[in-house]
Amino acid sequence: LATGPRQNNGIFYEIRTYDIKPSKMKEFIEVVNKYFHLRTGHSELVGFWSAELGAMNKVVHVWKYDNFAHRTAVRHALANDKDWQGKFISPALPLIEKQHNEVAYLVPWCQLGKPPKEGGVYEWVTFQMKPGGPVLWGEAFRAAINAHINTGYTKLIGVFHTEYGLLNTVHVIWWNESPDHRAAGRHSAHEDARVVAAVRDSVRFLESQQNMLLLPLQCSPLK
Q1: What is the DSSP secondary-structure string of the chain?
Q2: Which end of the chain, N or C, is less surrounded by CB atoms within 10 Å?
Q3: Which pTM does this prediction carry?
Q4: Radius of gyration of the chain (CA)
């Protein structure tokens, strides 16, 4: 059940999802805002968000690594960073209920994008596709993504395909000016024949789908 080819270089992205104890979300965000610069001094943070809709008391952050040796070196350095361990890890760990991570690659036809301006919202959509990988569903999935891009109401930030974690999972990050702007665009897209046709073709390979509306944290490069 091959996951399909990845990009030519070794760059990958680690997606970390934390469930925060319901009564501790405000405290967790405060600790992040105060001390997370200690973590970003070690490797590149792509984005850090909290869930507003579709999940509660959840944060998602994405890290970029040159290769697996790079990640190993960073993790080793973090374990020996007394400031990071004492000022962030010690107070933050009791606030976290559950942690989950995945390793994913950008799909070959997607470059990591940036929003046209700050102040919008992010939609994180997770697609669980049928086993077989992009060789089975890749072209149909790409056509569905492009159909939504062509409507012009939303901005594509990135499309990630898992390598470690639940396989045949695709995470798509979109940016919109506001939740209402996103809602209006979705209504228009559902009446667009191009989108309808592309979705009908790709949904044949879909097992399940879930989405979250995310708000960027103060430390997030993607705002």
Answers
A1: -------SS--EEEEEEEEEPGGGHHHHHHHHHHHTHHHHTTSEEEEEEEEEESSSSEEEEEEEESSHHHHHHHHHHHHT-HHIIIIIIHHHGGGEEEEEEEEEEE-TT------SSSS-EEEEEEEEEPTT-HHHHHHHHHHHHHHHHHHSSSEEEEEEEEEESSTTEEEEEEEES-HHHHHHHHHHHHT-HHHHHHHHHHGGGEEEEEEEEEEE-TT-S--
A2: N
A3: 0.93
A4: 18
Q: Which tokens sit at 51?
A: 């869930």
Tokens 């990988």 correspond to what residue? 133
Question: How do the pLDDT tens digits run along the chain, 223 residues long?
Answer: 344 455 567 899 999 999 999 999 999 999 999 999 999 999 999 999 999 999 999 999 999 999 999 999 999 999 999 999 999 999 999 999 999 999 999 999 999 999 999 999 999 999 999 999 888 999 999 999 999 999 988 999 999 999 999 999 999 999 999 999 999 999 998 899 999 999 999 999 999 999 999 999 999 999 9
